[in-house]
Write a structure and sequence with these properties.
The structure holds 2 protein chains of 2 kinds. By secondary structure, chain A is an alpha/beta fold. Chain A is built from 7 helices and 10 strands. Chain A has one domain: Rossmann fold (3-Layer(aba) Sandwich), CATH 3.40.50. Chain A starts with a strand and ends in a 9-residue tail after the last strand. In chain B, strand 6 and strand 7 form a beta hairpin. Chain B starts with a helix and ends with a helix. Classes of the chains: A alpha/beta, B alpha+beta. Chains A and B meet through helix 2 and helix 3 of A and helix 1, helix 11 and helix 14 of B.
């Protein structure tokens, strides 16, 4: 089992008022699964993403990632987990401006202290894989949205993470580019990559194997999507 | 890794060229002022020392010590006070020293309807050489002048101009009024000492005019008037007490030893009374040095404040940068940047500003210092030697401070960046 969330709660404090974002949430994800987490805004899906991505601590509960109880670890080790075991893909791509596609993909490798020559080889290999062989030295503002998101995918995969965590990956893209990205996800999934994708769009969620629906900080449904129900979006 | 971060820092700085430039300007001005101030003070020191040494080198000054009433009573009848004989005795006893005795009085020189009031010095031929002060026309007082109590006078440049205008004064006659001769007359009936003051008036022949030397250390050399010491004593003083002696010691390293020996010798001559004071030229230099240290501290302090303000500029701009790049910091942290990685990134950026600013500041400082040196050379009479002296240590200090300022003032913004919560930073608007 790759992920095991057990009784996770997250409560935000706004002054004296306590706002619960997640309430006693328990979920499991196996190696190689492609899971979609769907919910309206305010359902707690962003909070769940933060916890899954080790970006913030839960108020209570345990998070086991690849056999480690993450939130008991010191900060430095959590950083290493983010670097090595999790690959992030964001709605707004979050590429660094003034850096080429290649440099953006090299960034997680740099923080992993990979030698420079290896960084270069690995980054160009990944960019080739996402179909950007001829865009290695383009700056992010010279790339289309779809191309930027593919650079982001290459960056997310740089350290061969156990978990690919995507937050509304198609949210800022037109339907054609969005579909291309989802095709890349399919491809990765077939190669055995574990993917968790957060979205508000049920049609996109159907591209995953399993769909978890969140509402008011609780899981309200958790079901397999039928392969035949895949619809082109 | 470090290279990549430095590369990034340059990229980020050049992306905001105007802002980086203005921030750098603070450091540039700070460093430049440190360098320029130190260079100017160093230059001033070289100038002052050389101007003191222009009055002659390796000199000892012998004065009589002012005795208290009690001491005077105690030593009554003993052979005290500095006398011309003392000078002659030293000359005989220490043949390798050059001695110029000096006795001075205020007087007035007159020719026709022109006159000049000033201080008249009686001295010996050696004075000219010892003090590195020579006549530009005619001659200085000679041994013959001394031996014959000749009424010869050597005029400073200004004195000659006032009395004779453009005419050559050599061989001309001037009247000298002045000096107070104390006549001791004994009234037989009253058995009381009476003192009578008489102002003397004598005709002198001008034998020389001194070279222009200007004002040095508060004394205008061009207003000096010299006559033979023997003449001064005989005609104007009526005794053989001199004011002081200037002694040239050939070997700089033996100054201390000679001072001690002279002191011993003179005390012995004065029946064991220690009524003389010998000062070394180095003592004056020491005083100058002290003054310059005050300057150094004050000016250096001002310059450091400028550098500090530059540092605050860096801190300000780095805080803005950190805020602007909150999302970038969030992303970097999300994909695995450690606190130290972020800290280093922003520290290197602020240090880059201060290093570049430091280098440019050093260049500007050197240019300013030399520019100032030239300005002073043109504006100040006799200031021709006041060049700026840029010492490597000053450059090193200024540069070290600049880099230190970059690190110090970059630290707070960098720490702020490193501490950002990744989840919040990522979604910062």
């Amino acid at each position: 089992m790759l992920i095991h969330l057990h009784n996770i709660s997250k409560i935000y404090k706004a002054g004296d008022v306590e706002v619960p974002a997640l309430i006693n949430l328990t979920m499991k994800v196996e190696h190689g699964e492609f899971v979609a987490i769907i919910g309206q805004s305010g359902s707690g899906k962003t909070t769940l993403l933060d916890i899954l991505g080790c970006l913030s601590h839960p108020t209570s509960g345990e998070y086991w990632l690849d056999g480690e109880n993450v939130h008991e670890l010191p900060d430095a080790q959590i950083t290493t987990i983010r670097n090595k075991k999790i690959g992030f893909i964001f709605q707004t791509f979050h590429l660094l401006p003034r850096k080429t596609a290649l440099e953006n993909v090299q960034l997680p490798l740099m923080y992993a202290r990979v030698p420079h020559a290896t960084q270069h080889d690995r980054a160009s290999e990944l960019l080739t894989m996402v179909g950007l062989t001829d865009r290695l030295y383009h700056y992010s503002n010279q790339l289309s949205g779809g191309q930027q998101q593919r650079v982001a995918i290459a960056r997310a995969l740089a350290n061969r993470p156990a978990l690919l965590l995507a937050d509304e990956p198609t949210g800022n893209l037109d339907s054609k580019s969005g579909n291309d990205i989802l095709n890349v996800f399919d491809q990765l999934h077939q190669q055995g990559q574990t993917i968790i994708m957060i979205t508000h769009d049920p049609l996109i969620a159907k591209r995953a194997e399993r769909c978890i629906t969140l509402s008011d900080g609780k899981i309200v449904s958790n079901q397999m999507t039928h392969p035949s129900s895949k619809i082109l979006v | 890794m470090i290279l990549a971060i430095i590369h990034d820092a340059f990229k980020n700085l050049s992306a905001n060229l105007l802002r980086s430039g203005l921030t750098m300007l603070g450091v540039i001005i700070g460093v430049a002022s440190v360098i320029a101030m130190i260079a100017i003070v160093e230059g001033g020191q070289v100038w002052l020392v050389s101007s003191i040494e222009r009055l002659g080198t390796n000199l000892l000054f012998v004065w009589k010590k002012r005795l208290t009433v009690e001491e005077r009573r105690m030593f009554a009848g003993r052979n005290i006070k500095l006398k011309y004989e003392d000078a002659l005795a030293i000359r005989q006893h220490f043949p390798n020293l050059t001695i110029a005795p000096k006795v001075g009085f205020d007087g007035q020189l007159k020719i026709g309807d022109r006159d000049f009031s000033g201080h008249i010095s009686g001295t010996s031929p050696e004075y000219s050489e010892i003090r590195n002060f020579f006549p530009s026309a005619g001659r200085f007082v000679t041994t013959e002048d001394l031996r014959g109590w000749r009424r010869s006078v050597v005029l400073g440049k200004t004195v000659a101009e006032v009395l004779f205008g453009t005419e050559s004064p050599i061989g001309k006659e001037v009247k000298i009024f002045g000096g107070v001769k104390k006549m001791k007359t004994k009234d037989i009936t009253k058995v009381e000492k009476q003192e009578q003051e008489i102002v003397e008036e004598y005709r002198f022949v001008v034998i020389g005019v001194m070279e222009p030397k200007g004002e040095i250390y508060g004394q205008n050399r061009d207003e000096m008037i010299f006559i033979p010491v023997t003449t001064a004593l005989r005609f104007f003083k009526g005794n053989d007490k001199i004011d002081s002696m200037v002694i040239h010691v050939p070997d700089r390293n033996s100054m201390e030893k000679v001072t001690q020996k002279l002191h011993q010798f003179l005390v012995q001559r004065h029946d064991g009374v220690d009524d003389i004071r010998i000062r070394n030229q180095g003592d004056f230099l020491g005083a100058v040095e002290q003054t310059l240290w005050t300057f150094r501290i004050v000016l250096g302090g001002i310059a450091l404040v400028a550098l500090l303000v530059g540092g605050i500029g860096i801190m300000n701009i780095m805080l803005v940068t950190v805020t602007e790049r909150t999302r970038e910091i969030g992303l970097r942290k999300a994909i695995g940047a450690r606190r130290n990685d972020i800290l280093l990134q922003f520290l290197i950026e602020s240090t880059t500003i201060s290093v570049i600013g430091g280098v440019l500041g050093i260049i500007l400082g050197i240019v300013t210092a030399y520019g100032f040196g030239n300005l002073v050379a043109q504006a100040m009479p006799g200031g021709g030697d006041w060049g700026a002296v840029v010492e490597p240590t000053a450059i090193l200090i200024a540069f070290t401070f600049a880099v230190g300022v970059g690190i110090l003032f970059g630290l707070f913004p960098a720490m702020k960046a490193a501490k950002l919560d990744p989840a919040e930073a990522l979604r910062y608007q």
